[in-house]
Amino acid sequence: MIVARSPLRLSLGGGGTDLKSYYSIEEGYLVAGAINKYVYVAIHEPFINEIILKYSEIENVKNIKEIKHDIFREGLNLYEKDVKKIEITSFADIHAGTGLGSSSTFTNSLIAALFARKNIFLNKEEIARKSCNLEIEILNEPIGKQDQYISAYGGIREFTFKKDGSVKENLIFEDCTEYKEFSDNLVLVYTGTSRSASNILKDQKEKTENLNDEMLKNLNKTKEIGRLSKRLIISKHYEEYGRLMHEHWQNKKRRSKGMSNNQIDEIYNYGLRNGGNGGKVIGAGGGGFILFQSSDTQKLKTMLKKKSLQVVDFEFTNTGTEIIKL
Predict the structure, then answer these.
(1) 15, 30 in Cβ contact below 8 A?
(2) Helix then strand then coil, % of the chain, to nearest 5
(3) What angle do the packed helices 124-132 and 102-116 form, to 10 degrees?
(4) Adjacent-strand bridge partners of 59
(5) Residues whose CB is less than 8 angstroms from the CB of residue 279 and which lie 6 or more positions away in sequence, other chains included
(6) H or E stretch covering 4
């Protein structure tokens, strides 16, 4: 049995500038961190000639063309085209649709595991690049490259997305004790709803490709917020970073009406009244998780739990996509 795992991620500043529709015009930039919540993919060879896939559903098929799950189907079509029997199981610490990059994280794990099955062990760049190709080029998903790259590499990193499609990455912190200090200033809370990012990101993609002036200005500002986020995180000016997160969220909401709703606004404003200096919805918006920065995280966690909201404790991790069992 082969088991691969990849970490989920938190977008810490500049998210949205990693879409081709933007970085091919202006170059993108963002900061993101991998966390110790994972998506796993396990591969086993069954006794009979059958393709067995287990995720939120179970598929038993005889050939790849019959597979309903897009990423499973296209991943196998790319890298195991002639497979006759294989069993693949996917499971995760946090379910899909919550804004933590689960789709790309799953794709990373799947690709790493399929290659490990052939005794080929891809490096981080190869995993991220192949994952982007599968999701963006083959499946034509209106998503960016952030999730694939931060999940593959791990750590807290800055990424520059060049006009030619290449990606430059840099690890911000070398010392893991600095990760702990940073995460101790953050609170991650689930809004109680999941959603698909595709519709929100599709709207952004179309407006950017049409050179919509308002959208381009918004994303230019988002990129500058990303650069400032890095400086504040490195200098450990966490309260100022929290206030910048609030500015980031207000700017982000202007990109699409689907970014927020009454439920999200209520939780966000409640968090600000009870210890949060600022925060933002993680991912494309519309549901999932809110990340707060707070000078008194225990108070904020207690108050959120009093509202019957689910607070998720996490730490940042330097470990990206990896094979944990051969």
Answers:
(1) yes
(2) 45, 25, 35
(3) 120
(4) 53
(5) 187, 242, 245, 246, 249, 268, 271, 272, 290, 291, 292, 293
(6) strand 2-13
**Rounded Cα–Cα distance for residues 169 and 246 (Å):** 25
State phi, psi for 58 to the nearest 5 degrees. -125, 130
232-261 pLDDT, tens digit each: 999 999 999 999 999 999 999 988 887 889
The model scores a pTM over 0.90: yes
Cα atoms in the 13 Å half-sphere on the side-chain side of 219:
28
Give Cα 299 to chain centroid, integer Å: 27
- The residues near 275 (Cβ < 8 Å, ≥ 6 apart) are 292, 294, 295, 296, 297, 299, 300, 303
* Confidence class for position 174, pLDDT limits 50, 70, 90: confident
Q: Is 159 helix (H, G, I), strand (E, B) or coil?
A: strand
Q: Which residues pair with 53 in a beta bridge?
A: 59, 88
Residue type, 145: K
- For 204, the token pair is 């952004």
Q: Give the type of residue at 55.
A: Y
Q: Output b/e per residue, 23-32; b: 16+ Cβ within 10 A.
A: bbeeebbbbb
Q: In this predicted model, what pLDDT tens digit does every residue of 264-320 receive, in sequence order?
A: 999 999 999 999 999 999 987 778 999 999 999 999 999 999 999 999 999 999 999
Nearest to 154 by CA among 320, 323, 324, 10: 320
